[in-house]
């Protein structure tokens, strides 16, 4: 469903890697499209959510220009309400923007979203109240984020995460996990465990599982248990090929209510933001988010 806009609010995180640098381009793109844009910068964590909630009724849409933290902060704040949120890539990884198909170029991103469609998306919600749109995980993916220093993220952007991922893959630090999915208990050894709402990243380059949809009212657990680097290479190759045939090192489950604990306590992340160590309790909020996506 296409949406028409007259006034939008742009919430900018000045601490994001590209936030303030590309702000003039974003404002100019809105002006070129004949859309009035008020830009406001955040001053602290949580400020983006406060701005969105306080000003939502005054605008046809709210856009974010920052990293994944800013995007999900605003999306989560406006869950079950609105107006729709457009995510512009202004951070390091930009997982949310990439996953929603938003172009990396700011000018193109603005125009594609203004000419795009509104989509309803499920959200995952942690017991802390924090929400995620793409997914959360424990183990290797959280280590990848934790091991990427700020100076490298500012200098190399997304490649900083690839470098830290390589370091984490070399170590392959396993842990014991107990995951309960709608009452079914799974206990196994793992290197990474994910609870996903969206099943593909990097413009569909890597797909985690079959039938993982952003609007079906479910989340999907993917538990990976490689015993060695040969297993790891096979799993990555299967993801690249979109091969979801049975594998002794992969467990898939779909559900609405997830509880997970690890031994030893293992770091977690949600949409690229570190969230402390397990245990975690996650539930799905069906079609809670209104987001803008480019037309296909």
Query: SSE order in H/E notation?
Result: EHEHEHEHHEEEHHHEEEEEEHEEEEE
Which of globular, elongated, flat, extended, rod-shaped describes the shape?
elongated
Major sheet: size, sense and barrel closure? Answer: 6 strands, antiparallel
Q: What average pLDDT do the residues reach?
A: 88
Topology, number of strands: 18
CATH architecture of the largest domain: Sandwich
The amount of helix comes to: 25-40%
CATH topology of the largest domain: Tumour Suppressor Smad4
- Biggest sheet, spatial arrangement of strands: 6-5-18-15-8-9
Name of the level-1 CATH class of the largest domain: Mainly Beta
Strand fraction band?
35-45%
Instruction: Give the N-to-C terminal Cα separation.
Output: 12 Å
Question: Number of helical segments?
Answer: 9
Assign the structural class, choosing from mainly alpha, mainly beta, alpha/beta, alpha+beta, or little secondary structure: alpha+beta
Structurally, the number of domains stands at 2
As a whole number of angstroms, the C-alpha radius of gyration is 19 Å
Low-confidence stretches: 159-164
């Amino acid at each position: 469903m296409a949406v028409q806009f007259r006034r939008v609010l742009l919430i900018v995180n000045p601490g994001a890697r590209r936030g303030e640098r590309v702000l003039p381009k974003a404002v100019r793109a809105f002006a070129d499209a004949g859309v009035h844009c008020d830009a406001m910068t955040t001053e602290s964590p949580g400020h983006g959510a406060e701005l969105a909630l306080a000003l939502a009724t005054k605008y046809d849409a709210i856009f974010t220009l920052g990293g994944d933290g800013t995007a999900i902060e605003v999306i989560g704040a406006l869950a079950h309400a609105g107006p729709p949120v457009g995510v512009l890539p202004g951070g390091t990884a930009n997982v949310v923007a990439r996953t929603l198909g938003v172009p990396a170029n700011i000018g193109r991103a603005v125009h594609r979203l203004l000419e795009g469609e509104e989509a309803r998306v499920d959200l995952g919600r942690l017991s802390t109240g924090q929400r995620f749109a793409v997914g959360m995980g424990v183990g290797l993916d959280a280590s990848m984020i934790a091991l990427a220093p700020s100076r490298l993220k500012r200098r190399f952007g997304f490649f900083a995460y690839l470098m830290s991922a390589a370091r984490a893959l070399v170590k392959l630090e396993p842990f014991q996990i107990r995951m309960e999915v709608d009452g079914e208990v799974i206990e196994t050894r793992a290197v990474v465990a994910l609870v996903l709402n969206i099943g593909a990243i990097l413009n569909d380059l890597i797909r985690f599982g079959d039938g993982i949809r952003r609007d079906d009212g479910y989340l999907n657990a993917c538990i990976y248990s490689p015993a060695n680097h040969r297993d790891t290479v096979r799993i990555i190759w299967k993801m690249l090929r979109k091969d979801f045939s049975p594998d002794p090192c992969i467990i898939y489950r779909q559900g609405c209510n997830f509880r997970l604990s690890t031994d030893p306590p293992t770091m977690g992340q949600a949409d690229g933001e570190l969230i402390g160590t397990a245990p975690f309790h996650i539930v799905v909020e069906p079609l809670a988010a209104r987001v803008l996506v480019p037309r296909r």
